């Protein structure tokens, strides 16, 4: 979480930075505007410790991380581009990669009847679902200083070549991608890590 924020602030103007990461064990993240009591109750019910429950800088709902492929993308966000179109562009790129691997997946056009507090309870418009309508990919956004941060969770992990295929699909939509992390971003992330572990951040609502 800290490295994503550092990348959002420090990456070069105009660059698109894609980063994949996995969790050391079961964890839970929840959106910036969500209530700590709701998130912590969900974590407790799932047996996830408080130390593995963290508020994201992006929005969205509760996401359980246990075998999913998590990724983030920092990108230029034009002022007149609404969030829904950003989601569509990112998910279209991911979808192209998944279909290139032969996975049965489509983009949802109709959101769930009502917004869910848990991200994978049902698809929103432009989320990616499998042939039976089960949600495979959901994500959340934050905008800052003309840049956007997308954080997504994909429930199709374990397929060989998945990250490369997703990168190719996203590059077709967004242009050349940067995959490396600059040392200055890592240093900034180390300073921010304390924030994401603190009660003042996680329990602020």
The helix-strand sequence is: HEEHEEEHEEEEHHH
Low-confidence stretches: none
- Total helical elements: 6
Structural class: alpha+beta
**Main beta sheet, described?**
6 strands, antiparallel
**Rg result:** 16 Å
Tell me the span between the first and last alpha carbons.
18 Å
What is the approximate shape?
globular
Give, in spatial order, the strands making up the sheet with the most strands.
1-5-9-8-7-6
The share of residues in extended strands comes to 15-25%
Tell me what you see in this structure.
It is a single chain. The chain is α+β, with helices and mostly antiparallel strands and 205 residues long. It has 6 helices and 9 strands. A 6-stranded antiparallel sheet has the order 1-5-9-8-7-6, sandwiched between helices. A 3-stranded mixed sheet has the order 3-2-4, with helices on one face. Strand 7 and strand 8 form a beta hairpin. The chain is globular and about 40 Å long. It starts with a helix and ends with a helix.
List keywords for this structure.
205 residues, alpha+beta, 6-stranded antiparallel beta sheet, 3-stranded mixed beta sheet, 6 helices, 9 strands, 34% helix, 22% strand, globular
Chart the SSEs and their pairings.
Elements: H1 2-10, E1 17-21, E2 27-30, H2 36-45, E3 53-55, E4 63-65, E5 69-76, H3 83-100, E6 106-107, E7 128-129, E8 135-144, E9 147-154, H4 162-174, H5 183-197, H6 199-202
Parallel strand pairs: 2-3
Antiparallel strand pairs: 1-5, 2-4, 5-9, 6-7, 7-8, 8-9
